[in-house]
Write a structure and sequence with these properties.
The structure is a single chain. With about 775 residues, the protein is of the alpha/beta class. Strands 6, 7, 10, 13, 14, 15, 26, 27 and 30 form a nine-stranded mixed sheet that branches. The longest helix is centred in the N-terminal third of the chain and has 18 residues, at about 1-20. About 55% of the residues are buried. The model is unreliable at about 1-10, about 10-20, about 55-60 and about 105-110 (pLDDT under 50). Bound molecules: 2-acetamido-2-deoxy-beta-D-glucopyranose (NAG) (4 copies).
């Protein structure tokens, strides 16, 4: 009966869609109530939806089903007219209709920096057998199959649980896969529905990577050891991913103009069905409630099946509230700088030296010679933008020929500015940060001698040019760039990368995000042979490795580590793996002081790094973990005041929220960090409590003692202060009480205070950040 109703509903829908204006189509993701039974005449849900949607013989083309989702939850995505939405939403078997969203794409030395290179006799690599039985899914721009980082030399047969495929298409043969790259698929229906058919000259409708991002991130997660890797001579050494023997499966969802949710969801669906263990997602996002966020919904279903999902936090830093991919069932990764840099300093005619960075690899500027220096200032260039941005066509060749040109950051890519300067006849470029960019620097493979300088240095150079250009000045402005190659053992390190997106968590302030930071600045990793290192099509250089920066690079470090941890501890849940990474993370740099924030040079905070920088070897043996099941997240959503319907959309579970609400508040999720959110104009005396459950994953008969470092102006008590575990696997509860007074927390900007709660058995330390914030009224 229910089935018949559903079929009628869909048939009605088709009619409605056909009568509606055929022009105004947009893509929607439709979640079907899992209880509505599929009519038995249709072998699969896909048959059901598409047969229903095409059973009419009218002339108007039927609405196209783009993807059918079946592993994560029943549903589909389709291109349909917006006018038929209310009816679609009203159908009894339709749980939710979510609009399509487009998302942007958000290491030789990093394994050594993390302490797990092959030469350092790593117990983590040893116990996990380098991750050889695990499969990491990289949802990205595809893969370069023949790259040495994806060689399968010495790898054993693929586990029989693997059900994935190597999809052959345009320029990507089925022989492209091997025992390392065990799966490759692509999803373009959502992209093409929104963008029109792709141009086969500029991209490949296949798993082949024609961008480079996906090859780079995949090799960070699980690239093999490749000796003598470098980019144009920089960062030379052995390249290796985090889990060198883990298998890789590439799911291409990102195309020339972005990554679409309907395709990303199809990749999640396929990856879980294929049998992956870890999903790595280096795309940015917009922060919306979880029931409107297709990625959060897909990640929830993946987590429920035991698949670990890590995602990049985004590159929207250094401002606050910029972190994305913030669902508590996802590990959100920020970016740090490792102890390697590529100094390329600017020497000015007044003898001042301004520090910069670059990975320009061609012939340098003539030694000892000073070149005239040029900056357009505020004069108008292309499309109303300042000419100082060095956009295409904004520089007058007569004015810049033979000169070093100062370009401001913004609008076009950093390397593209260099190309504009080169074409106009400039001999070099200084890429200068504006005040909003702060001191954050990213090294690029420029096509001419060029370097990047921070906001302070940029200002000094601009002022020098202004002064030296004034009539009556004794000497016109001049400069040169001195390239110093690769510098190692840089101090301080790690440093929070300027671009790394920051908390507080805009959707759930009770959950600290990002969770951790990992290396994400100037990371060397594999690169396709069909893409230049600058990404410019005019650039004919080719390199097997490239140096990129972003939380996109940080995320696969954590994905690879998760594979190692899961290989060493097959029984650990995704939450357990994240807990191990968080409670063992560190916040002190190689000078022994709190990590700095690259953007300001000031001390960084929990809002910048979450629990801290990952420490893989310690994560291997965390002692205690804070575990979570999917039902705990349902309680969390109840306590976040989500409606029963919205909770069902995210979790496909019927929530009994009265039970959850009795148990406490959103911050009571058994998370490895704690955030107390107080209202700005609440009572003068404020208090709350957290209940946490610690699971002993270390030795039997271990006793943990608590140490509290309370946030300034806050009283914190932990009961009991001692946890005595008799068995491995045993769980014990403790209660954290937090009390403060409104006047002790400064109103406005600095109303966030943080402290630490640390359990120790004398051998291991299990640390949780404890944050107290005053929420501004909306
Ligand atoms: C595809 O891209 C190429 C290279 O940019 C261009 O020359 C060609 O006109 C494009 N084709 C179509 C159909 O847009
Ligand atoms: C860095 O610290 C200085 C001194 O405490 C302070 O004046 C400045 O505002 C801080 N900068 C940022 C960006 O927080
Ligand atoms: C949920 O609603 C209750 C009652 O209005 C309120 O006290 C609580 O702060 C809300 N919680 C969240 C996380 O918004
Ligand atoms: C499916 O049916 C079961 C049993 O009637 C019910 O408990 C559950 O909430 C239903 N699920 C949805 C998504 O409606």
């Amino acid at each position: 009966m229910a089935a018949a109703l559903c079929l009628d509903g869909l048939a009605f829908l088709v009619l409605l869609l056909r009568l509606a204006d055929a022009q105004n189509h947009a893509t929607y993701i439709v979640l079907i109530n899992p209880n509505s039974t599929k009519p038995s005449v249709f072998p699969t849900h896909s048959h059901w939806y598409s047969s229903s949607l095409s059973s009419s013989s009218e002339a108007v083309p039927p609405p196209t089903i783009l993807h059918t989702y079946s592993t994560l939850f029943p549903g589909f995505s389709a291109s349909i007219p917006a006018s038929s939405l209310p009816t679609l939403r009203g159908l009894p078997h339709v749980l939710s209709v979510i609009p399509e969203r487009r998302r942007p794409l958000a290491t030789t030395r990093s394994p050594l920096f993390l302490g797990i290179s092959s030469s350092s006799s790593s117990p983590l690599l040893h116990f996990s057998d380098f991750g050889s039985d695990l499969v990491v899914a990289v949802i990205d721009t595809g893969i370069t199959p023949s790259h040495p980082s994806f060689s399968d030399t010495g790898l054993g047969p693929v586990s029989s649980k693997w059900k994935g495929q190597c999809v052959a298409a345009n320029g990507f043969p089925s022989s492209a896969c091997n025992r390392k790259l065990i799966g490759a698929r692509f999803f373009s229906q959502g992209y093409e529905a929104s963008n029109g058919k792709m141009n086969a000259t500029t991209e490949s409708r296949s798993p082949l990577d024609t961008d480079g991002h996906g090859t780079h991130t995949a090799s960070i997660a699980a690239g093999r050891y490749v000796p003598d890797a470098s980019t144009l001579g920089y960062a030379r050494g052995v390249a290796a991913g985090m889990a060198p023997k883990a298998r890789l499966a590439a799911y291409k969802v990102c195309w020339n103009s972005g990554c679409y949710d309907s395709d990303i969801l199809a990749a999640f669906d396929a990856a879980v069905a294929d049998g992956v263990d870890v999903i790595s997602l280096s795309v940015g996002g917009v922060v919306v409630p979880y029931y409107l966020d297709a990625i959060a919904i897909g990640a929830f279903a993946a987590m429920e099946t035991g698949v670990y999902v890590s995602a990049s936090g985004g590159n929207g830093g250094p401002g606050g509230l910029t972190v994305t991919n913030v669902a508590p069932w996802v590990t959100t990764v920020g970016a740090g700088a490792i102890d390697r840099s590529f100094p390329a300093d600017v020497k000015l005619g007044n003898r001042r030296v301004i520090p910069g960075v670059s990975i320009y690899g061609g012939p340098g500027l003539e030694t000892g010679h000073m070149f005239p220096l040029f900056y357009t200032g505020d004069s108008e260039g292309t499309d109303g933008y300042s000419a100082s941005l060095c956009l295409e066509g904004s520089l007058v060749p007569k004015a810049v020929k033979g000169k070093i040109v100062v370009c401001d950051r913004g609008i076009n890519s950093r390397a593209a500015k260099g190309e504009v300067v080169r074409k106009a006849g400039g001999v070099g470029m200084i890429l200068a940060n504006g005040v909003f960019d702060g001191e954050g620097l990213v090294a690029d493979c420029h096509v001419l001698p060029a370097t990047a300088v921070g906001a302070t240095g940029g200002d000094e150079i601009r002022k020098y040019i202004e002064t030296a250009s004034k009539p009556g000045s004794k000497s016109p402005p001049t400069a040169t760039i001195i390239f110093k190659g690769t510098k190692l053992r840089v101090r301080p390190a790690p440093v929070v990368a300027s671009f790394s997106a920051r908390g507080p968590n805009p959707e759930s302030p009770e959950i600290l995000k990002p969770d951790v930071i990992a290396p994400g600045l100037n990371i060397l990793a594999a690169w396709p042979d069909n893409v230049s290192p600058s990404g410019l099509s005019s650039d004919k250089r080719r390199t097997a490795f490239n140096i990129l920066s972003g939380t996109s690079m940080a995320c696969p470090h954590v994905s690879g580590l998760a594979a190692l941890l899961k290989a060493a501890h097959p029984e650990w849940s995704p939450a357990a793996i994240r807990s191990a990474l968080m409670t063992t993370a560190y916040t002190v740099d190689n000078r022994g002081e709190t990590m700095l924030d690259e953007s300001s040079g000031n001390t960084s905070t929990v809002m910048d790094y979450g629990a801290g920088h990952v420490h893989p070897e310690k994560a291997m043996d965390p002692g205690l973990i804070y575990d979570l099941t999917s039902y705990d997240y349902v309680d969390f959503l109840c306590n976040s005041n989500y409606t029963a319907n919205n909770i069902q959309v995210v979790t496909r579970k019927t929530a009994d929220c009265s039970r959850a609400k009795r148990a406490g508040h959103a911050g009571n999720l058994n998370y490895p960090s704690m955030v107390a959110v107080f209202q700005q104009y609440g009572r003068p005396k404020m208090s709350t409590h957290f209940i946490r459950t610690a699971t002993n994953v270390g030795d039997a008969n271990s006793v943990y003692q608590v140490t509290v470092r309370p946030p300034m102006g806050v009283k914190v008590t932990v009961r009991p202060e001692r946890l005595a575990f008799r068995r491995t696997g045993q769980k014990l509860n403790f209660l954290v009480r937090v009390e403060t007074r409104a006047k002790k927390l400064a109103p406005g900007g600095s109303s966030t205070r943080s402290g630490l709660i640390t359990w120790s058995d004398g051998k291991r330390t299990v640390t949780s950040p404890l944050v107290v914030t005053l929420q501004q009224p909306l």
